[in-house]
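pls design
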């Protein structure tokens, strides 16, 4: 029987030398393999483990719950956030009220790129919105994630290098494995009806779409935030407020000036 992966996370109650060794020995006696281990938060460790059957995990949990040196927080089949927490040594911040909103700051760009790349690898339709102030790294992160996911990315509208507003795609650009990037501000403020016909056509495709400035996008279209599968917020630092009046001020330029800004 093929071994199944599990995620174990525990909080240290009494830190003492040899604690990790004791847990590793316990896993070894139960014939459970350790795949990866890392600190995931202050005083917390996360482990990806493999076991042949669920009974091994039941016995493990029963024994761990008798230990006064640790407190088991999670023992479950690993989710994407669990895998990334062990890989990067920190958890992705998630909105408590809106479970599809995830928050990052600039010094977590590696974690953000890894997270989006894993989303991009998943098959089928996926609509992802990304919020953030100008020059915080939104577009660059999306492109880097596309490369990690081996996806071809296409700018439907953008200001990364110069102002881009596409009104049509060529035949080989229509592909479910492509990733389409839409700048909500550029599309709603600068585009014509031909562009919007293309946007609607792309939105119907079973592929991944990323919309920068999703709040501006939904204010001016028939789409709503409920249509998005994930919302990602990227800030320069924790606590920074994303102010769209400042973002909008940066759109009040001529076409030649507008291409110089990275939204």
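designed seq:
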């Amino acid at each position: 029987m093929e071994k199944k992966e599990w995620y174990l996370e525990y909080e240290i109650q009494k830190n003492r030398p040899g604690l990790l060794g004791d847990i590793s020995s316990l896993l070894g006696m139960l014939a459970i393999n350790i795949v990866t281990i890392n600190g995931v938060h202050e005083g917390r460790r996360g482990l990806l483990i493999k076991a042949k059957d669920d009974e091994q995990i039941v016995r493990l949990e029963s024994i761990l719950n008798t230990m006064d040196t640790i407190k088991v927080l999670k023992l479950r089949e690993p989710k994407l956030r669990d895998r990334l927490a062990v890989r990067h040594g920190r958890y992705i911040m998630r909105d408590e009220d809106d479970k599809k909103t995830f928050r990052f700051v600039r010094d977590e760009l590696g974690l953000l790129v890894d997270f989006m790349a894993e989303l991009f690898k998943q098959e089928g339709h996926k609509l992802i919105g990304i919020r953030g102030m100008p020059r915080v790294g939104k577009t660059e992160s999306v492109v880097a994630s596309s490369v990690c996911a081996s996806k071809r990315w296409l700018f439907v509208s953008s200001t990364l290098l110069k102002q881009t507003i596409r009104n049509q795609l060529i035949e080989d650009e229509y592909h479910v494995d492509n990733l389409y990037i839409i700048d909500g501000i550029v599309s709603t403020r600068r585009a014509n009806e031909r562009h919007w016909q293309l946007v609607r056509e792309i939105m119907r495709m079973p592929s991944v779409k990323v919309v920068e400035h999703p709040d501006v996008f939904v204010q001016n279209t028939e789409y709503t935030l409920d249509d998005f599968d994930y919302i990602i917020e990227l800030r320069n630092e924790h606590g920074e407020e994303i102010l769209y009046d400042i973002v909008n001020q940066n759109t009040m330029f001529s076409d030649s000036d507008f291409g110089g800004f990275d939204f």
